[in-house]
């Protein structure tokens, strides 16, 4: 019986060991130099003509953000090396895999201990997620929050798998495409037609800036739909 009671703690310690151990391996070994955007880009440029380059990039995108590398680095490198569309697609595949792995790892190994420790307080959070979880997760994907933290937290607090999968599928592509486009435009500005390249950089900068307002726009739209789903916002009555 005592062994069974300790199992959530044991699984939680395994979860911490996997995450913290992975971070220490990357930070304390020669692999650390490849976490820098310039070195990572140079490495992929060397492998660019090799058939394995896209596969290695996707694997890196699926693993490294959970170990401390910002997801933005993956996206920028993808856009710089593979171009806007191909880079965005490869970044999306890698980061989507990262989201699923992080969510499943936290939910499988660490959630039971969180449930034991928080009890009814966690039930309150789960109730909020039941009502607002989908659009909350979509908005979180558009904010500059550490990518791995969002994935782990969703698994710990009990976001439903279906909600997590679909909200990530909807919320991840806008940022991936915009920042892939921005990165590709920067490379073009350094190598090609300056006038066209700087125009593309300008467009990408506007899109990236606009992306910061998208969560607020989504929230306002959701409020409007809830207030009057059929006819839009209420109209003032004419004076009699």
Report on the architecture of this protein:
The protein has 240 residues and is mostly helical. The chain has one domain (2-227). The protein has helices spanning 2-27, 37-47, 53-63, 71-82, 84-109, 111-118, 120-141, 147-157, 161-191, 194-211, 214-227. The longest helix has 31 residues, at 161-191. The chain is flat and about 60 Å long. The N and C termini lie far apart (75 Å). The mean pLDDT is 78.
Please indicate the count of domains.
1
Total count of strands: 0
General form = flat
% residues in beta strands: under 5%
Sequence of secondary-structure elements: HHHHHHHHHHH
Low-confidence stretches: none
For the report, how would you describe the main beta sheet?
A: none
N-C termini distance? 75 Å
How much is the radius of gyration in Å?
A: 21 Å
What structural category arises from helix and sheet content? mainly alpha
Give the integer mean of the pLDDT values: 78
Oligomeric state:
single chain
Assign a percent range to the helix content. over 70%
Number of helices: 11
Task: List the SSEs and their pairings.
Elements: H1 2-27, H2 37-47, H3 53-63, H4 71-82, H5 84-109, H6 111-118, H7 120-141, H8 147-157, H9 161-191, H10 194-211, H11 214-227
Helix pairs in contact: 1-5, 2-4, 3-5, 4-5, 4-9, 5-8, 5-9, 7-9, 7-11, 9-10
Short description, anyone?
With 240 residues, this protein is an all-alpha fold. The chain has helices at residues 2-27, 37-47, 53-63, 71-82, 84-109, 111-118, 120-141, 147-157, 161-191, 194-211, 214-227.
């Amino acid at each position: 019986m005592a062994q069974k009671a300790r199992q959530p703690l044991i699984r939680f310690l395994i979860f911490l060991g996997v995450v913290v151990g992975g971070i220490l391996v990357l930070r304390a070994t020669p692999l650390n130099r490849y976490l820098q955007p310039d070195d990572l880009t140079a490495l992929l440029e060397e492998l660019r003509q090799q058939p394995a380059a896209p596969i290695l990039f996707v694997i890196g995108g699926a693993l490294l953000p959970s170990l401390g590398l910002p997801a933005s680095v993956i996206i920028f490198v993808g856009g710089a090396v593979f171009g806007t569309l191909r880079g965005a697609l490869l970044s999306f595949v890698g980061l989507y895999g990262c989201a699923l792995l992080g969510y499943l790892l936290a939910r499988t190994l660490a959630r039971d201990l969180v449930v034991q420790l928080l009890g009814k307080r966690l039930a309150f959070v789960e109730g909020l997620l039941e009502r607002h979880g989908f659009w909350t997760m979509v908005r979180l994907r558009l904010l500059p929050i550490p990518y791995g933290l969002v994935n782990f937290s969703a698994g710990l607090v009990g976001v439903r798998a279906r909600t997590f999968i679909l909200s990530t599928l909807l919320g991840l592509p806008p940022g991936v495409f915009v920042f892939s486009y921005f990165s590709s435009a920067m490379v073009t500005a350094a190598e090609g037609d300056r006038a066209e390249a700087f125009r593309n950089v300008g467009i990408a900068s506007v899109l990236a800036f606009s992306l910061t307002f998208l969560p607020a726009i989504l929230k306002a739209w959701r409020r409007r739909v809830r207030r009057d789903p059929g006819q839009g916002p209420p109209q003032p009555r004419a004076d009699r």
